[in-house]
Structures are given as structure tokens and as C-alpha cells.
Amino acid sequence: MLLKLNLNDPRPLHEQVAGAIRRAIAEGSYPPGSRLPPARDLAGALGINANTVLRALRELRDEGVLEFRRGRGVTVMHQADHRSALLERIRGLLREAERYGYRREDVIKMIGELT
Asked: Are 94 and 104 spatial neighbours (Cβ–Cβ below 8 Å)?
């Protein structure tokens, strides 16, 4: 996995790592059922603390993108590629809405008006 972080990005490192993993899954680098490299390996390749990578992995687990299995490592969940891509697009929408002065709640209300 070739992940890159933008040091000029104002987002916290764990969010950047999670975003990079989401993109790798959405682009097919890690299909459902595949294993990710260990957190220490990812951290070493990125030059960041392993706890930062673990925080990103836990975030993705909580979103239902990754699954932690004792003795088997971290694997990509089935349907994670679609969910991951959609979550990334939603985050982009929220960032853009924020630039225009809208809050998360405003965007949710707008979406509710569409359905």
C-alpha cells in the first residue's frame, strides 16, 4: 500500500491516514476480505507514530469499513469499498459546506428536504 500524507493539510494525521486507506479500498487496492499491513509497518512507511495509525484503523472499524480479528489482523469488510467511497464523498461535501458557512446540521436538513 502506497499511502501519502500531505503535511500542509490542516486535518489531523489520523484523519489523513483513514482517508488514504478509504481511497485505497475504493480504488480496489484492497478488495473486500483482504488484509492490511500491520499498523507498525504502515506507521514506519509513513514516518508517523503507530498509535496514530491505530487510531485511524479504529475509526475505520467503527465505520464498518475494517474488521479486527485476533490472530488474523485487520481485514477489509465486504461492501466496504462502496461504503468507504460514499463516506469519503460525504466528508468532502461537509468540508465544502463548511467553506460556505453551513454546519453539519444544515447539510443534514437539506438532505432531509430532498427525500
From this structure: yes
Using an 8 Å Cβ cutoff, are 17 and 3 in contact? Answer: yes
Residues of the chain with pLDDT under 70: 1-2, 79-84
- Output the pTM of the full model: 0.69
What dihedral do alpha carbons 20, 26, 31, 36 form, nearest 10°?
10
SS3 30: coil
- Give residue 73's domain range: 13-114
Q: CATH number for the domain including 60? A: 1.10.10.10
Q: Is 106 left (phi over 0), alpha (psi -120 to 50) or beta?
A: alpha
Q: Are 32 and 81 within 8 A, CB to CB?
A: yes
What pLDDT, on a 0 to 100 scale, did the predictor assign at position 60? Answer: 93
Alpha helices in the chain (DSSP H): 13-26, 39-46, 50-62, 80-99, 104-114
75 backbone dihedrals φ, ψ, rounded to 5°: -120, 155
Which run of H or of E encompasses 63?
Answer: none
